[in-house]
Amino acid sequence: MNQELAAKSIQELTPLIRDKSISPVEVTRAVLENVDSYDGQVNAYIEIEKEKAIESAKHAEVEIMNGNYRGRLHGIPMALKDILYFKNEKATMGSKIHKDFVADYDATVVSKLKDEGTIFTGKLNMHEYAWGATTTNPHFGATRNPWDLSKIPGGSSGGSGAAVASDMTIASLGTDTGGSIRIPASCCGIIGLKPTHGRISKHGCFPLSWSLDHIGPMTKTVYDAALLLETLSGYDPQDPTSADVPVKNFTEILSDDVKGTVIGINEEYFFNNVDRRVEESVRKAILELEKLGANIEIVKIPALALSEFGELVTITTEASAIHHDNMVSQSENFGDDVRFLLEFGELISAVDYLKAQQIRRQLSNEFASTFKRIDVLISPTLPFLAPNIGEQTVDINGEQLSFLDQVIRFTGPGNLTGLPALSIPCAIADGLPIGLQIMGAAFKEEKVLNVAYALEKLNLLKGRKADLRGAVSS
Amino acid sequence: MENEIVKVLEGKNIKVPEHHIQPLMAQWQGYLQLKKNVDAVKHADFDIGLKHVPGGDRQ
């Protein structure tokens, strides 16, 4: 019974908690039982806050019993990536350098979740400072993929991806600078939504790369992603990149009707050099959408050929600027891979950084004119299946290629342009989930969510999910 | 090449571990490959798109 409870989505739990059929304490205990059972293997948590969570759940129970139901997140247990600030609590950023850092204010997203009555069960593991995509963390241990414990969960929000996939949290938040929400969502078979840049405030989130960073939901269902987006969106004067745009009722306008929706496909960039199992699965899913009445249009976006340069230069230089002082004074305290990337960022010239920003503007303009003709653009999220922990290369159709070069190839353009992008599982190959990416026009997340919702209704995974029961008992 | 990379980083007071030098050189070569495509493109119509807010952005 407890495992069934922890496996539920926010959408399923909300009415049960609201009508007092179940208590937030029961749900929180169910989630914490899974943490007890599985986290020894998965290592998704950096810090488990068991007693505090039960106390908060009891408080929520009293509020609800007294008729003070706050809303759809009231009494829902969640754990967040350990890069978001909670007042008077530690935020490690997955690092040794910040292992004892205590924030003196709540991140805006944390404050919004607290207002809704969310229960926090702990802080989740991540790639150190979010600067990497494996979550093989040298300070807190590697997070393992719940579908296959020998594989990476992706990153940098790998703890969030693994915890959602193994029901060790009902939902979570991640951050995404080159794909760090969508990559673990793809590897772990869950929904990951990077909203439009500026849609969700980043105040109180430790930066990786100011102009590319985003916060977004990582959830079991599309509805839950829409709900968290709706809750967390809104202008925040404390975040200089926050956008003053109206917040939509994403859950109310969620629809699986894709009749007449125009789906763009870009063959040259997004279907070039892709594992054939991934390619076949994504193309099959597109065909299914066509059967539902969507129209397919082939699009050209020439500046995509330059986007890898744009993303690489922007992320490495901005990250190196942020960490420069610590690189001078205590570089030995960074993990070896992060230290390497921070050294690399120091080598790139200001001229190249400015060229990267030119590319970025060109890419944004080309995407903008493309989205006048299409509603969404569909591609694979990753060109490969999750590799083994510790591997530096990925296998794409028998060729061994650098993980670092391949991992953000399809997700990076979403960060460079700031456009919304979501990863949804569309198939399983070799026991591992395959993610399909849906990109949309700026501030048109509803179109992305609707196409994802239609795919979800098709049940392409046939109800399969990560199952750790065998791994734990063996 | 090896000397240049080490010189740039040491000039910024950043110590480079010995085992990073070869991978940094390889990464730099890959970077130069990507840059070749960029150098071949003219971006006359695209400035960097930064906005300056006179008076600051915190009213």
Brief characterization of the structure:
Chain A: Belongs to the amidase family. By secondary structure, chain A is of the alpha+beta class.
Number of domains of chain A: 1
Task: State the end-to-end CA separation of chain A.
Answer: 22 Å
Low-confidence stretches of chain B: none
Interface with most residues: A-B, 33 and 29 residues
Instruction: Give the ordered list of helices and strands of chain B.
Output: HH
CATH class of chain A: Alpha Beta
At CATH level 2, the architecture of chain A is Alpha-Beta Complex
Q: So how many helices of chain A?
A: 17
Distance between the termini of chain B: 49 Å
Q: Describe the sheet with the most strands of chain B.
A: none
Low-confidence stretches of chain A: none
**Secondary structure: helix percent of chain A:** 25-40%
Rounded mean pLDDT score of chain A: 97
The total count of strands of chain B amounts to 0
CATH fold field value of chain A: Amidase signature (AS) enzymes
Structural class of chain A: alpha+beta
What would your notes on this structure say?
The complex is a heterodimer of chains A (474) and B (59). Chain A has 474 residues and is of the alpha+beta class. Chain A has one domain: Amidase signature (AS) enzymes (Alpha-Beta Complex), CATH 3.90.1300. Chain A is built from 17 helices and 15 strands. Chain A has an eight-stranded mixed β-sheet. In chain A, strand 12 and strand 13 form a beta hairpin. In chain A, helix 3 runs antiparallel to helix 4, helix 6 packs parallel to helix 7 and helix 11 crosses helix 12. The termini of chain B are far apart. Chain B is an all-alpha fold and 59 residues long. Classes of the chains: A alpha+beta (474), B mainly alpha (59). At the A-B interface, helix 11, helix 12 and helix 13 of A face helix 1 and helix 2 of B.
